[in-house]
């Protein structure tokens, strides 16, 4: 359905031009974001989770830059002593997937936390303490290792003879029973896990948006004051909810193409590797990877525009403001 010539052009544009430019900017942005959060300290659970989120974004971008280089059509077809398209799997693709999965669950956790702020505003600080936030984020990073473990267990690098090149090159080899293991692994780790994280973010975001709309409508009918009392949401808390909602909506939009690919591959056999629609999968995948790059790169813009504390701290760190940093 997609010719190799068209695929090569799309891969070059989406991954090696746009992806590299946005990704490099995103790496710098996430380093700055981490600096700001560390400077602010971890006095609340939101900062803890957003710091973990920035780490996952940074890891996803770094590994994706390597992936973009190794799948470059010219580089992949060059006469090299190794096979870039095979080596990218264990060195770039699976590590990128690891950080992407981590990002999905941390985003879902932050959105879920905002939902609890609405449902149980008086008990949220007792339920989601800093200890709980740290344990959850560390657990996500630890458990997601299991998500990529089957791929590393069943594959390894070694020298092999390639008939098409009539030479021995360094590539990827598989252990026995790989098909049986990968069949289960693909269903659980490559479909159910990311899709579950995706829909968790969707559900929590919808709840937050609906609740915010309901509370705002109630406040307007109950009082003309700018501050919220009684059942309303405090203005500071509402700003945090709006910021988290924005981050979640961006995640939903940017991750949707990848979620669609995973679902399609599970339903359409021809979308497997070397299947009749594989070039189409690679084409749509390049778009999905670029959108992931955007997703991991623009959080700093959201924080800067929606968080006064973040903006003041960033401007002070960068030397844009000479005044004291507000506590």
From TrEMBL:
Major site of localization recorded for this protein: membrane
GO cellular component: plasma membrane
Superkingdom of the source species: Eukaryota
SUPFAM superfamilies: Family A G protein-coupled receptor-like (SSF81321)
G-protein coupled receptors family 1 profile domain residues: 29-303
GO molecular function: G protein-coupled receptor activity
Name by which UniProt lists this protein: G-protein coupled receptors family 1 profile domain-containing protein
Originating organism: Lymnaea stagnalis (Great pond snail)
């Amino acid at each position: 359905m997609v010719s190799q010539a068209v695929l090569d052009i799309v891969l070059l544009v989406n991954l090696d031009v746009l992806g590299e430019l946005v990704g490099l900017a995103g790496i710098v942005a996430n380093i700055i974001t981490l600096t700001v959060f560390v400077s602010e300290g971890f006095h609340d659970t939101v900062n803890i989770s957003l710091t973990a989120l920035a780490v996952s974004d940074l890891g996803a971008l770094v590994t994706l830059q390597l992936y973009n280089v190794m799948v470059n059509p010219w580089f992949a077809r060059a006469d090299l002593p190794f096979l870039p398209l095979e080596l990218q799997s264990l060195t770039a693709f699976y590590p990128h997937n690891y950080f992407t999965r981590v990002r999905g669950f941390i985003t879902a956790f932050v959105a879920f936390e905002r939902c609890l702020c609405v449902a149980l505003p008086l008990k949220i600080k007792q339920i989601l303490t800093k200890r709980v936030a740290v344990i959850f984020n560390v657990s996500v990073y630890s458990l997601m290792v299991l998500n990529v473990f089957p791929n590393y267990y069943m594959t390894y690098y070694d020298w092999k003879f390639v008939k098409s090149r009539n030479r021995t090159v360094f590539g990827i080899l598989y252990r026995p029973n790989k098909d049986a293991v990968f069949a289960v692994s693909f269903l659980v780790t490559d479909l159910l896990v990311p899709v579950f994280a995706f829909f968790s973010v969707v559900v929590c975001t919808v709840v937050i948006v609906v609740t915010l709309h309901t509370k705002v409508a109630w406040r307007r009918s109950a009082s003309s004051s700018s501050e919220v009392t009684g059942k309303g949401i405090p203005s500071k808390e509402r700003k945090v909810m709006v910021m988290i909602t924005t981050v979640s909506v961006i995640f939903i939009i940017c991750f949707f193409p990848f979620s669609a690919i995973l679902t399609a591959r599970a339903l359409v056999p021809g979308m497997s590797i070397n299947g009749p629609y594989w070039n189409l999968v690679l084409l749509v995948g390049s778009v999905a990877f670029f959108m992931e790059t955007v997703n991991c790169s623009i959080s700093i813009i959201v924080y800067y525009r929606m968080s006064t504390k973040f903006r003041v701290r960033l401007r002070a760190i960068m030397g844009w403001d000479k005044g004291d940093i507000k506590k």
